[in-house]
Amino acid sequence: MKRMVRFLMVMLSFAVLATGSVHAQTARWITADSPKADEPNTWIEFRKEFTIGKLDRKVTSIEAEIAVDSKYWLWVNGEMVVFEGGLKRGPNPRDSYYDVVELAPYLRKGENDIRLLLWYFGKEGFSHKDSGKAGMIFNAGKIGLVSDSTWESRRLSEYQAATDPEPNWRLPESSIKYDARMEGKDQWSASVELGNWDEGPWGKLVRRPIPLWKDYGVKPVTFRKWKSDDEIELVARLPYNAQFTPVIELTDKGEGTCIRMETDHIRGGSDNCIYAEYITASGRQSYESLGWMNGDELRIKYPADADVDVHFVGYRETGYNCEFEGSFTSSDEVVNRFWEKAMRTLYVNMRDTYFDCPDRERSQWWGDATVLSGQSYYQLSPKANALVYKAIHELAYWQREDDVLFSPVPAGNWDIELPAQMLASISTYGFLYYYLHTGDSQTMVDVYPAVKRYLALWTFDEDGLTAYREGDWSWGDWGDNIDIRLILAAWHYLALESAAEMAKLSGNDADVAGYLKQMASIKDAYNRCWNGYAYRHPSYHGETDDRVNAMAVIAGIADESKHDALFELFKEQEHASPYMEKYVLEALVKTGHGDYALERFKSRFRNMIEDPMHTTLYEGWEEGGFGGGSTNHAWSGGMLTVIAENICGVRPTVPGWGEFEIRPYPVIPECDIVIPSVKGRIRSAFKDCEDAFVMTVSVPEGTTASVVLPSDDYVSVTVNGKPYSGDWKFKAGTYDIRCTK
Predict the structure, then answer these.
(1) Which of 135, 209, 362, 593 measures 20 to 30 Å from 538, CA to CA?
(2) What CA–CA distance (Å, rounded) separates 686 from 736?
(3) Cα-Cα end-to-end distance for the chain
């Protein structure tokens, strides 16, 4: 209530500095006056006291532009304004992001105080490019509040290197050790100025394209207490696998006790991940470790002989700021449980970027990002689309000088091309799929030059098929029996199809014919690899690959005459990992065998669906599969998209959902899906009964839905209770459809 009153006051009037200055000053990059300011895992605190004097009723918003390397927390007049600001570097290999933060609700007439806590990673990683220099720049020019040497700062010695082992080399974050006995011992001094906006090792500053994190607040947890001769362990089960910061309140009758905080994901499947250590002072105290970790369980450990009483254990969940606006229920409880785990896995793999896993890597591999973004469109609010926008631009703007695309990006210690993943990223399932769901043609224009340059690297063999391109890592999927030549050819075909559309959107019509000619060449050569029952490249000698045969179906390379043979193949061969299985299941539905797709799905995903200890899906078919894979890998949720698009049958037919199709395929007797499209909420609910097929369809304003019924042989059809035989295109409204068998 107090904040609301203050906000209303600010909306009516606001202030300028007491000096009367109304001119924005020049903000400067600043850091602490310390020889250790640029060491890895450095924490610097900044503060500035300022006065707001004369009120100006015309001012209703005071925005601050803030950039850092690497993360920050912001307080104004003692109130938390930003919990973990900043994005990992960068939009390209040279530049950095900046945040825009609204200060108006927190400021007051008279004396004000602002504090900013900076965490400088000081390390490279699969998701961050280190600038080599800790720094912060702050510009609230409307009130003349800018960072410069008048800000005081200090390097905080209570933040230290945690006990080994360090997190694995993919993570730029360090585990955080905090020694409460050192609090307040560092002296304030004038900050050191380093350069102006768009200067120095941070490069040009690009506005953050995604929202600040959603803060769910601190929540308590109950815990079990285990005691051995050497150690006490408190184990708290969270409601689900989440990104969170641990909170503890305790009393130590002594001091110097090491409290270790970690999760059940401390190994991330195979490698060391993030944990936290807290060294106690004497007396009652509370602490929140600011480096987020993830897991289904929080585990707190300390020596058995410590004279410590723990009063409170809690966690603060933070995450990407979007809503779970979509929904799905069905008559199949196995599918419902999968859907719930798929959504949890998706959300725990969204933050600065989409990533493969939130524990071991936090890396924006584009094979993963292609599958994750596809799920987002069907269940998360449109705010999630900004993360896809960011991912697409980053992939294009990190293109190497030799025109190679690579991922993960951003990255400081990786620039390796996985050709199959790069083709998938720019394909109809990647870049163009974003355009289909958002209508954002400008992004296609922005990135088309990078797509064109990359595709120019691909050549053809003497048979007209995509030539083998090893790249830096010839990876087609986890597992074995990978017919890599045909995997590459299928993805190349879909990438060319995407490029042709992007060329039209960007005014490069002259490029289209070339792409179509190359597609025709691939299709012809691919079909020459058909042996009567399957596609196999002549150079391949393993068991027949289900992946490449599925890709032939979804790409439209395989015509209907081959569908029956391919169905028999899909019943016999199961080589795809959970990543590529999504495409196999989609192919089964498209060949008219959705019932078997559901059967195969339940069989292959059963272990992870039924696992009571994990609320997320695995990287492989078993926990720790494929050499120690993670248990929270969102690429395993691809069946979510297949259910939404091919079983519930809802998909856009015009970019941006202005027109869409509802073509239900009732292999599940009852389904009810709500999709939060960019045009509004779309609902398709159906029930396939013995005597009737019934549907409810909700169409948002400004759109048209084309409904295709599962059969042409109904005895009668009514819409909203009246006989219907008209056009099956519906404008905005809700329609109850009943088809009597």
Answers:
(1) 593
(2) 10
(3) 59
Homologous superfamily assigned to 659-740: Maltose phosphorylase, domain 3 (2.60.420.10)
Q: What residue spans define the domains of the chain? A: 2-212, 216-319, 335-647, 659-740
In this structure, what is the dihedral angle of CA atoms 334, 584, 371, 217, given to the nearest 10 degrees? 10
d(CA 72, CA 570): 51
| DSSP string for 318-332 | EE-S-----EEEES-
DSSP letter for each residue of 12-53 = H-EEEETT---SPPPPEEEE-S-TTTTSTTEEEEEEEEEEEE
Token pair listed for 192 = 């050191």
Count other Cβ atoms within 10 Å, centred on residue 16: 18
Q: How far is CA 198 from the centre of its chain?
A: 28
Mean pLDDT of the chain: 94
Beta-carbon-side half-sphere exposure of residue 424 (alpha carbons within 13 Å): 26
Pairing outcome for strands 327-330 and 223-227: unpaired
Q: Tens of pLDDT along 348-363?
A: 999 999 999 999 999 9
Burial 438-469 (b: 16+ CB within 10 A, else e): bbbbebbebbbebbbebbeebeeeeeebbebb
pTM over 0.90, yes/no: yes
Polymer length in residues for the chain: 741
What's the half-sphere exposure (Cβ side, CA atoms, 13 Å) at 17?
Answer: 16
- Which tens digit of pLDDT belongs to each residue from 281-302? 999 999 999 999 999 999 999 9
**Amino acid of residue 195:** G
C-alpha–C-alpha distance, residues 455 and 71, integer Å: 36
Comparing CA positions, the residue from 682, 688, 698, 691 lying closest to residue 736 is 698
Q: At what angle do helices 431-438 and 366-379 cross, to 10 degrees?
A: 10
Question: What would you measure as the largest C-alpha separation in the chain, in angstroms?
Answer: 85
**Distance separating alpha carbons of residues 664 and 671, to the nearest angstrom:** 9
Query: What's the topology of domain 335-647?
Result: Glycosyltransferase (1.50.10)
pLDDT value at 3 more than 60: no
Does pLDDT of 74 surpass 60? Answer: yes
Beta strands in 57-155 (DSSP E): 63-69, 71-76, 79-85, 96-102, 110-120, 135-140, 145-146, 152-155
CA 30 to chain centre: 31
Per-residue pLDDT, 40: 97
Q: Using DSSP bridges, classify how beta strands 14-17 and 79-85 pair: parallel, antiparallel or unpaired.
A: unpaired
Asked if the domains at 2-212 and 659-740 fall in one CATH topology, the answer is no
Task: Tell whether the model's pLDDT for residue 493 goes beyond 50.
Answer: yes
Pairing of strands 670-677, 722-723: unpaired
Tell me: cis bond preceding 172? Omega within 30 of 0 counts. no
| C-alpha to C-alpha distance for 658 and 651, rounded to whole angstroms | 11
Q: What is the DSSP string of 680-722?
A: EEEEEEEEE-SSEEEEEEEE-TT-EEEE--S-S--SEEEETTE
Q: Using CA atoms, how far apart are residues 286 and 342, in angstroms rounded to an integer?
A: 35
Q: Is 334 left (phi over 0), alpha (psi -120 to 50) or beta?
A: alpha
Check residue 57 and give its pLDDT.
64
Buried b (16+ CB within 10 A) or exposed e, 492-514: bbbbbbbbbbbbebbebeebeee
Beta bridge partners of 252: 283, 308
Planar angle of CA 442, 444, 447, nearest 5 degrees: 110
Task: Indicate the DSSP class of residue 135.
Answer: E
What pLDDT shows up at residue 55? 56
Note the CATH architecture for domain 216-319: Sandwich (2.60)
The second-level CATH assignment, the architecture, of 2-212 is: Sandwich (2.60)
Give 14 or 521, the one with higher predicted confidence.
Answer: 521
